[in-house]
Amino acid sequence: MTGLFFDWALLDDGWCANVRLEIGTDGRIARIDRNARAANEDLRMTNGMAVPALGNLHSHAFQRAMAGHAEIKGGGEDSFWTWREAMYGFLGKLSPDDVEAIAAHVYMEMLEAGYASVGEFHYLHHQPDGQDYDAPAEMANRIAAAAAASGIGLTLLPVLYARGGVRDEPLNDRQRRFGCDIDRYARLHGEIQLPTPDAVLGVAAHSLRAVPPAMLEPLSHEFGGGPIHIHIAEQTAEVDAVEAAYGARPVAWLMDNAAVDRRWCLVHATHMVPAETEALARSGAVAGLCPITEGNLGDGIFDGRRYIEHGGFYGVGSDSNVRIGLTEELRVLEYSQRFKDRRRTVLRQGPGSVGEAMLRASAEGGARALGRGAGKLAVGEWADIAVLDSDEILPFVPGPEQWLDHWIFVAGDRAVRDVWSAGRHVVQEGQHRRRSAIAQRFRDTVARLMEDAV
Q1: How many CA atoms lie within 13 A of 405 on its CB side?
Q2: How far apart are CA 143 and CA 138, in angstroms?
Q3: How many other β-carbons are positioned within 10 Å of the β-carbon of residue 441?
Q4: Looking at 303, 319, 413, 418, which residue is catalytic?
Q5: Contact 34, 9 (CB under 8 A)
Q6: Residue 379: pLDDT band with limits 50, 70, 90
Q7: What is the pLDDT of residue 453?
Q8: In what order do the strands lie in the sheet with 431-432?
Q9: Residues whose CB falls within 8 Å of the CB of residue 323, separated by 6 or more in sequence, listed in order
Q10: What is the pTM of this model?
Q11: For this structure, is 319 an active site residue?
C-alpha cells in the first residue's frame, strides 16, 4: 500500500479536511479515511488539495508537432478544410519513431496539466504510400509505448477510415495512410499491445463521411465491447453533405441507425438542432468537447445549456493539441456558452460553483468515454489524482465553494503540483519525473522535421 495524506480532498459529498488515502498495489484506491491523522510512512501532501484527475477524451497526438504552423493567412478564406490540407502535408513525413517521440511529449504535457488519462483517436496507421508496416499495428503500438514512457492511462481508439466522402469517394493520396476496410482493420486491432493493466482498447469510426453505414454495425459489435468514438457534426459542410446523402442530419441519422448508448462518445457534436441535442443527452453517450481546438479551427459552439438541462454527459479533450491546458479547456467551454447565450455561469444548474459543476461533470464524462474506472476519489476506482497547491488558491477566496472556481478561472494549470495515474506518481512538484529525456527527444524530432521542411 501507498499512503497519502492531504490537507483537503474533494470527495463525493464535497471538500473534506485531513484525508488519508491508500493506493493498493493494483493502482486502485483501497481506502479513504476522513478527518484522519497521517501515518509515519505516508507521503504528506502539505498545502495540498486533492481532486479527481480528469481524462482527456480526444487526442490526435502527432498534431502537437505542427502547433502554430497553420496560422498564416493564405490568399483566400481559411477554414477547417484548408487547415486539414496543411495537416495532411505534415503527416506525410512522420515515421514511427517520430510519432512515439511526439506522443510521449504531449502525454507528459497532459499529465503536468492535471490529466491522468487520454483517449488517443489514432488514425495514422500505415506507411506514406499506404502500405502496411511489417507489423500492421506498428503505429498503434508506438502510441502504447509513448503512453508507457509517460505513465499516462491510455484508452487507445484505432480509427476505421474507409472512404473519402459520403458518396463513397475513394481515399485520396493524402488519406492513404489512414485507409482500412473491416478485414484490414481487424488485423491491425488484433495486434495492438496495451502498455499497462489500466489501459483500455476501444474502436473509433472517423466520421460518417469516412465510414459507410454497413461498417458501423460490425465496428461497434465485433471488437471487444469497449468504448466507441466518432467525429460528428463538427462542420456545417459535413452536416450538409450527410443530410444530402442520407436524408438526415448526422446526429439524428446516427441515433436512428446505431445503438448509441453509454459506450459511445460523439466528438464535437457542434452543429445540432434542439431535437438532436436532446436525443444525444437522453442516450447516455458522452459529448466529447474540445473547446480550444474548436475555437482554433472555427468549428462553432456546442449547445451546452440545452444539453445539460436534458441530463447530458460531457467531457473535454485537446484534439489537435495546439495547446495543452486542462483548465483552459474548461474555461473556454464556459466562456463560449457565455458568448452564445449572453449569460454567465451557464454550465451549472441551480445555485453553487460553476467550476465544481464543470470539474465533476468532465471527470465523470471523461471516465465514461474512456471506459475507465475513474472520475472520482472513491474506493475501488483507479487512483487518478491531481493535487493542487493550496498556496495558489486559499489566500485568494473566502471559502471552499470558490476554490475550484479560482483554480479554473484564475490560477490555471500552474496550480497543479502532483499527479497520480492509476497509482503511478508521474508529476512531482509540478514537473514530470521524466521531463528532461522526453523533452529532449521531442526537440530533436521536431528540429529534424523542420529541417526536412525547408
Answers
A1: 13
A2: 9
A3: 17
A4: 319
A5: no
A6: very high
A7: 63
A8: 29-33, 14-23, 2-11, 43-52, 385-389, 416-421, 424-428, 431-432
A9: 67, 292
A10: 0.97
A11: yes
Provide CB contacts within 8 A for 6, sequence distance 6+. 18, 19, 20, 21, 45, 48, 49, 50, 387
Q: At what angle do helices 96-113 and 326-341 cross, to 10 degrees?
A: 70
Q: What is the average pLDDT score of the chain?
A: 96
Q: Can 240 be counted among the known catalytic residues?
A: no
Is the pLDDT at 454 greater than 60? The verdict is no
Rounded to 10°, the helix 182-190/213-221 angle is 20
CA distance 382 to 379: 9
Cell of residue 278, nine digits: 436532446
Half-sphere exposure of 297 (CA within 13 A, CB side): 27
A 10 A CB-CB count for 86 gives: 15
Average pLDDT (114-130) is: 97
Q: How far apart are CA 368 and CA 366, in angstroms?
A: 5
Residues 228 and 263 sit within 8 Å (Cβ to Cβ): yes
* All domains in the chain, ordered by first residue: 2-52+376-431 (2.30.40.10), 54-370 (3.20.20.140)
Cα(199)–Cα(178) distance, integer angstroms? 23
Say which range, 56-70, 283-297, 341-355, 410-424, has the weakest mean pLDDT: 56-70
Q: Are strands 153-160 and 115-122 parallel, antiparallel or unpaired?
A: parallel
CB atoms within 10 A of CB 39: 12
Q: Which one of the listed residues 125, 231, 268, 271 is annotated catalytic?
A: 268
- Residue 416 β-bridge partners: 388
Q: Vertex 72, ends 70 and 77: CA angle to 5°?
A: 95
